[in-house]
Amino acid sequence: MRRVLDFLYDAAAWLAALAMIGVLLMVLLSIVSRQFGFHVPGTDAYAGYAMAAAGFLALAHTLKRNEHIRVTLILGRLQGRARHALEMWALSAGVLLAGLFAFYSVRLAWQSHAFHDISTSNDATPLWIPQIAMAVGTLILLVALLDEWVLELRGRRVTVDSEEALHNE
Fold first, then answer.
1. Radius of gyration of the chain (CA)
2. How distant is the alpha carbon of residue 96 from its chain centre?
3. In whole angstroms, what separates CA 38 from the centre of its chain?
4. What are phi and psi of 78, to 5 degrees?
5. Cβ atoms within 10 Å of 30's Cβ, excluding its own
6. Which ranges does the record mark as transmembrane (predicted)?
7. H/E segment holding residue 75
C-alpha cells in the first residue's frame, strides 16, 4: 500500500511539474506572438489554468515531504502524549478541511460540466476541464492527510524538525 500511495503523490507532483512547463510555454507563446505581431487567444487564461493545476496537484507531495509551512512554536516544546494529542488534533482538522475542500472542488467541476459553464475570456474553455486539476489535487491531498493521520495514530509518522526554522534573520 505504501508504494501505491507514494506513487500517487509522485505522479501528482510530476503532473504539477508538467503544468508548470505549460505555464512557461503559454507565457513564451504570448511574448513571441507579441514580438512577431500575431495574437494567440487564450494564452493568459491557459497560463492561469496551468498555474492553478500546478498548485493543487503539488499539495499532497509537498505535505508528504514536510514542506508545508507549520507553526511549531508550541509543538516544538511538547513531547510524548501532549505532542501526539496536538498532532492528532491538527491532522484531524486538516483531514476535515481537506475533505470539505475536496467535496466542494469535485462538486464545482461536476456542476460546471452539468451547466456547460465556459470561460468568460476569449478562449471560451469549458470550465470543468481546468477545474478537474483542482478536484484531483484536493482529493489526493485528502488521501495524503488521511495517510498522515493513520501514521500518527499508529505512532509511525516521521516528522523532521528543521533547525533552519528556528533561525531567523
1. 20
2. 16
3. 35
4. -100, 155
5. 17
6. 12-33, 45-63, 84-106, 126-146
7. none
Q: Write down the residue that cell numbers 462538486 correspond to.
A: 107
**pLDDT tens readout for residues 60-114:** 999 998 888 777 778 778 888 988 998 999 999 999 999 999 999 999 999 999 9
Assess contact for 48 and 93: CB atoms under 8 A.
no
What pLDDT digit, counting tens, does each position of 49-59 carry?
A: 999 999 999 99
Q: Could you tell me which residues come within 8 angstroms of residue 35 by beta carbon, excluding any fewer than 6 positions away?
A: none
Collapsing DSSP states into helix, strand and coil, what is residue 35? helix
1-17 burial: b if 16+ Cβ within 10 Å, else e: eeeebeebbeebbebbe
What 2-9 contacts at long range (C-beta under 8 Å, 24+ apart), as own/partner pairs, is: 5/143, 5/144, 5/147, 6/64, 8/60, 8/140, 8/143, 9/60, 9/61, 9/64, 9/140, 9/144
**Distances, alpha carbon 157 to alpha carbons 14, 64, 154, 162, in Å:** 24, 10, 8, 16
Q: Which residues in 87-118 are b (16+ Cβ under 10 Å) and which e? A: beebbeebbeebbebbeebbebbeebeeeebe
